[in-house]
Amino acid sequence: MRIGFLGGSFDPVHFGHLIAAQDVLEQCQLDRLILVPAAQAPLKPNDVQSTREDRLAMLQAAIEWDHRLEISDYELNKGGISYTIDSVRHFKATFPKDELRWIIGGDQLPLLHKWKDIGELAKMIEFIFLERPKHPTKPHPEIPGLVLHRCDGHLIEISSSELRRRVQAGLSLNYFCPQKVIAYIEAKRLYR
After folding, report:
1. Domain 2-158 has CATH 3.40.50.620
2. Is 11 within 8 Å of 48 (Cβ atoms)?
3. Distance CA 125, CA 144 (A)
4. Closest CA to 132 of 158, 112, 100, 114
5. Residues 6+ apart with CB under 8 A from 94
6. Which three-class secondary structure state does DSSP give residue 162?
7. What angle do CA 94, 98, 104 make, to 5 degrees?
8. Which of 47, 63, 140, 141 has the smallest CB count inside 10 Å?
9. Cα 97 to Cα 114: distance, rounded to the nearest angstrom
10. 113 and 140 Cβ atoms separated by less than 8 Å
């Protein structure tokens, strides 16, 4: 099987994440796509405001009807900084006979050389990069063994930090997130 992994804070999950997941599934002929919420992203130390339980619940509410998408709580259970190399080692052991692809935004390409153990990571897994609106892919340093697959799609410019600011300002999240995610945020009074 060909399995893709899409990491992020998902705080909150929004249509930008979900459309990107669908585009990758369709364009890259993936058999499965696993969403991997990070405990703490090393290059975005202040990106998480909700608890692990709240982020898992919002993800589950967003995708519960879509059998193509799954959630891994590996990084949340591990805790601490979520380095991709640790997660890839775990998933390689979990899925030893499958082809694995790590999905990143095109804006991450110029930073890829800063990732922990990127040389080893490039030998272990192939990458799919998503073009993001208003963020054309910039040149990136040469990384030996790095295999990149480009994915274009119906990407929309939404960020979780923008949505948290909207909630704080009393603005609606309608049309930015699935309705069940919005209901969860309102019920739990998140981001206030």
Report:
1. yes
2. yes
3. 13
4. 158
5. none
6. helix
7. 85
8. 141
9. 29
10. yes
Read off the amino acid at residue 146: L
8: helix, strand or coil = strand
What pLDDT score does 157 carry? 82
Domain boundaries, the chain: 2-158
Of 38-47, 98-107, 132-141, the range with the highest mean pLDDT is 98-107
What's the rounded Cα separation, in Å, for the pair 167 and 33? Answer: 29
67-31-84-162 Cα dihedral, nearest 10 degrees:
-50
| 3-state helix/strand/coil string of 20-64 | HHHHHHHHCCCCEEEEEECCCECCECCCCCCCHHHHHHHHHHHHC
Tens digit of each residue's pLDDT (9 = 90 or more) over 125-147: 999 998 866 666 766 778 999 99
| Residues 6+ positions from 175 with CB-CB distance below 8 Å | 15
184: which 2 tokens?
A: 């969860």
Residue the block writes with tokens 């300002």: 169
